[in-house]
Amino acid sequence: MSEAIVSVRNLRTSFFTKAGEVRAVNDVSFDINKGETLGIVGESGCGKSVTSYSIMRLLDPPGKTVGGQAFVDGVDVLALEEDAMQDVRGNKMGMIFQEPMTALNPVFTIGYQLDEQIMKHLKLSKAASRERAIEMLHLVGIPSPDQRYENYPHQLSGGMRQRAMIAMALSCNPDFLIADEPTTALDVTIQGQILELIQSLQARLNMTVQFITHDLGVISEIADNVMVMYAGRTVEVASAERIFGNPSHPYTHALLDSIPRIGRRMERLPTIDGVVPSPLNLPKGCSFQNRCPFATEQCRQERPPLDTIDPGHNVACFHPL
Amino acid sequence: MTTYILRRFLQTGVVVIILSFVTFAVMALMPGDPVDLRASADPHITPEDIERLRELYGLDKPLIIRYKNWAMEVLQGELGFSRTYRIPVTDLIGDRLVNSVILSGSALFVALLIGIPLGVFSGLKPNSKLDYSANMIAFAGISTPSFFLALLLILLFAVQLSWFPASGTLSPGNSELSFFDGLLDRLNHLVLPMLSLTALQMGVYVRYSRSSMMEAMRNDFIRTAKAKGMDRKTVIWVHGFRNALIPIVTIVALSLSFLFSGSLITETVFGYQGIGKLLYDSIIGNDFNVAMVSFMITIIMVLLMNLLADLLYAVIDPRISYS
Known about the structure:
heterodimer; A: alpha/beta; 4-stranded antiparallel beta sheet
């Protein structure tokens, strides 16, 4: 097994709202090996995006990372000064976002927005940067990249814009790419193309990827390992095969059950009863106990620790399936 | 682009014609025509004389004919005589226009110079002390009636402190002074009306730039710029401010028209010889030709600056094009 290039330890991020402290990410740890992809899945509000923003240090107040470490290439990025972090962001770590339609600045050309980053981090001249930018646009499969370089974002389609975003995120050869639901806002055929693109670039550049999504179908295609989050905590981590073949946490199981499958006939698609508990008012014990069909008195009193049930397969449940 | 501008100019022309007719008709509704005024000042005039004068000046014709006569003259550059000043309107308007451009222009300049940075910085830190102070200044400026503020300024700086003259544009005998002293005299007269106008406008620019900066900084692309490792200055000024500028430029371009229309209340309170005061005096004094020309200047400038705002919009926002 190769060495972990990304290593997050006991990450805690809270939002300090008027109603009180909301623990959006609560004691989350994970590792990603060089060249591999970790998929993070969970419902809206489970803390998967906040985890990424915490590692990129892009949280705005009232959000604040209150504890933990995040090592990227051996450096704890959470401990860096803001100045030093600016040299890491966009350089060693790249990030792509959910909304390609609004993630690019409408008043600057695609070329300007690429150059700005390349000139800062790679210290290239304007001409060399232009060459690099066009090469990147070509790499992400944008046709006639030298023309697109001169274009404004509104002149590109959603899929093309997401490709341009990817080109931007990868323009300085980052070791680590965070993709925050990069396909959610795109239509299905474009989704497939973007996923394929990320996979092929990952293989070519030997890049480490953290891929966030609520779409389990996407995760099954792209991830080596999968981390399932619920109410700010990790409930299960395992290889993608095990998660899909042998889910052990009742929540993971219920999630997989609620995917419609071709060839499986049923009256109603199963759903998970109840709603995600308010992060201000989490139940005692296991966060999932009020929705879990297997919950016992122990689940209502104590919080299950994240235990290893098999090598590489950790579950936070007293009664793994 | 060219066809767009041509089309807009054509539209502007049509609007000018319609508005000039409306203004002409409203002016004609005012009681008393020039002959009435002359008659009331001359006890020896006979009713026959009055009839003859009306016929001579074409005042017995229907409104539409009178409008046509007036419009034809104006189109040939013949703006007529001022009834009260007894000089051609052309000679009268020029100086007044310059005075108004100086007053309104300096007020606009100062208002922008203070208002935009104040708005931008308070937009960057909403609900901070700076933001609260800026908002208070802005609302005070917007809510204080200009005549009231003008009177306060006169009371404090002219009557109590005697720092600046209370009214006028130039001291008597200004033309005898050297260039530098003459300029100083002009500036002295300018300060109070300028301050009063600045206070009024600055608030608007503070509020506008505050809200557009706040909105600009909420955009997703600000997060992208941060994720690219851009420093705070670049994120704020290159990515944020450049976008916040779009609505600000529009509102500034629209307010440029007031450079040429002057400000009726402030100029009147300060006895400043601008076009706003000229308009006021000419309506009060039934000086029909002067009033019509002043109105026309205002109308044309408002329309032209609207056009300019639309064109600038396309220059600063690449998403907008008129081709």
